[in-house]
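Running this now, will post back.
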Amino acid sequence: MIVPVIDIKDGKAVMPIAGRRDEYEELKSVICKSSDPLDVAVTYERLGFREIYLADLDGILYSNPDLDLINEIARSTGLSIMADIGLWSPETLLLSRNIRPIIATETFSSLNLLEFPKEVILSIDTRGDRLLSETSLDLFDFIEIIKDSRKITEIILLDLDRVGILKGPNLNLCKRVIDRLPGRKIIYGGGIRDLRDIDSLQRIGVYKVLVGSALHTGRIFKDVQKGDYR
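Update: finished.
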């Protein structure tokens, strides 16, 4: 199943480049002529998607998420939203019921953040096989710590080196993580080029796939129009 992506910076939807956020540029898309994040979300819904992944880069980088914009997307669409806004607080957890919080290893500094008062989606952020986290834990040591947590409903595995560059997914990393997290719902993001990549990921047990650039460049747009993978 495809989950389309919206990366937001300075109030606009942007295109990622290998996770180098200072180089992200305003979105140019064959499916949506606007870089307004709400317009992009409405386009996704019109195409038949029911869920999106949203990353607020101002929240992730500067702890200044655009909560009004995120809530506007939730109110104006019927989409279920997975949102990474950087660090969450009890106040921001009271966002719309259509918004599910993502706790990302890149931005948390203590494992205490995994003890939130509600269920969360955990994002395991990597570059290659290296965990991005201020905890200084090895990737697979970290997986051992969190694998039995009941607060974590789904796990996102991001390879930021591959995000936005259409070079193919990190299948080896996916296999190793899935082997260590049996029975968990794994969502993968990074490098998706086409439906063959999605097939390959689903065959090894990936539950959902985050897709941005392959949609906006038109690589898999025709297949989405036919109703595949939504």
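Residues 20 and 160 are 8 Å apart (CA to CA). More later if anyone needs it.
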